[in-house]
Amino acid sequence: MLRSCAAPLRSLGALRGPRGGACPPLCEPRPALRSFSSEKVIYKDFSIPNPSWSKDLRLLFDQFMKKCEDGSWKCLPLYKHGSLQRIQDFKTFFHDPKFTKEDVMTQTRLFTSSFEEGLGFEHAMFYNDVEKRTVCLFQGGLYLEGMPGFLHGGAIATMIDSTLGMSALIAGGIVMTANLNINFKRPIPLCSVVVINSQVDKVEGRKIFVSGNVQSADEKTLHSEATGLFIQLDPDKSLT
Ligand SMILES: CCCCC/C=C\C/C=C\CCCCCCCC(=O)SCCNC(=O)CCNC(=O)[C@H](O)C(C)(C)COP(=O)(O)OP(=O)(O)OC[C@H]1O[C@@H](n2cnc3c(N)ncnc32)[C@H](O)[C@@H]1OP(=O)(O)O
């Protein structure tokens, strides 16, 4: 039987955005499954709390939602509006049907959203435009195990890449990771909650330099430090 990371929630009705309603509109639904035939898009919001979220993750999420009230922070919907547009732009300019055919594309899923609730990458991202910072609240589930009881380094790298990448994406549009360096300093226990911080340090032409770290929810443990180089894609260059 599958175990969930969190004790069952007493009431989902307790999950409220700062304006008293459920999380949207600050945290808008993201389509988990996307369709490139434009006939059907199935929406599922992965960033709003679900029963697998631990008390720590819920608490941090609520704290960040509170910070969103004055507009200084935004809860990032990964696919809607800007982000969705970036994905569409990517498809328009860089997707090569030679490699992934239309019928396959209708079945794809974003890696970090492809696990059953609580077993994979439970996370929510927030962005501060003034500070150019992205913060990801992340609880890695049971299927992300590496060494027994701890998260796989690849799973940590995935979320670091996504968080630093989000900072770069907001700064530079359609980007891809060219380089990612990670120092793994302390292992992350499965199902624990960590905070991934990232900021854009420098933009040089098409190069966007981003750095970040991973800390425990109580900020007492520094789990990892990372730097990344993201390159704005050139529409005149083929990717393949
Ligand atoms: C980033 C995504 C944001 C994620 C946000 C999360 C959710 C959003 C929702 C959905 C999106 C999900 C996507 C998540 C994916 C996460 C990101 C990735 O993991 S991308 C996959 C891994 N990366 C790749 O596969 C890229 C492979 N590489 C390439 O295709 C190319 O090398 C390139 C990166 C496109 C660059 O090629 P290009 O021809 O355009 O550039 P140049 O080679 O001319 O280089 C330009 C410039 O940069 C310097 N450069 C390039 N690479 C490096 C390097 N590794 N180290 C140092 N410098 C490098 C190069 O020297 C040039 O410099 P200069 O102009 O000064 O000469």
SSE order and pairing:
Elements: E1 31-33, E2 42-43, H1 55-67, E3 73-75, H2 81-94, H3 102-105, E4 121-128, E5 133-140, H4 153-172, E6 175-184, E7 193-204, E8 207-216, E9 222-232
Antiparallel strand pairs: 1-2, 3-4, 4-5, 5-7, 6-9, 7-8, 8-9
The structure holds ligand LBKI3ST6.
Write a structural description.
The chain is α+β, with helices and mostly antiparallel strands and 240 residues long. It has one domain: Hotdog Thioesterase (Thiol Ester Dehydrase, Chain A, Roll). The protein is 21% helix and 28% strand. The protein contains 4 helices and 9 strands, in the order E-E-H-E-H-H-E-E-H-E-E-E-E. The protein has a 7-stranded antiparallel sheet. The radius of gyration is 18 Å and the shape is globular. The protein binds ligand LBKI3ST6. It holds the Pfam family 4HBT.
Ligand identities: ligand LBKI3ST6
Number of helices: 4
Low-confidence stretches: 7-39
Helix content: 10-25%
Beginning-to-end CA distance, first to last residue: 43 Å
Give Rg in angstroms.
18 Å
CATH superfamily: Hotdog Thioesterase
Q: What's the architecture in CATH terms?
A: Roll
**CATH topology term:** Thiol Ester Dehydrase, Chain A
Major beta-sheet overview: 7 strands, antiparallel
Catalytic activity: dodecanoyl-CoA + H2O = dodecanoate + CoA + H(+); tetradecanoyl-CoA + H2O = tetradecanoate + CoA + H(+); hexadecanoyl-CoA + H2O = hexadecanoate + CoA + H(+); (5Z,8Z,11Z,14Z)-eicosatetraenoyl-CoA + H2O = (5Z,8Z,11Z,14Z)-eicosatetraenoate + CoA + H(+)
Keywords: Apoptosis, Cell membrane, Cell projection, Cytoplasm, Fatty acid metabolism, Hydrolase, Lipid metabolism, Membrane, Mitochondrion, Mitochondrion inner membrane, Transit peptide
Organism: Microcebus murinus (Gray mouse lemur)
Main location: membrane
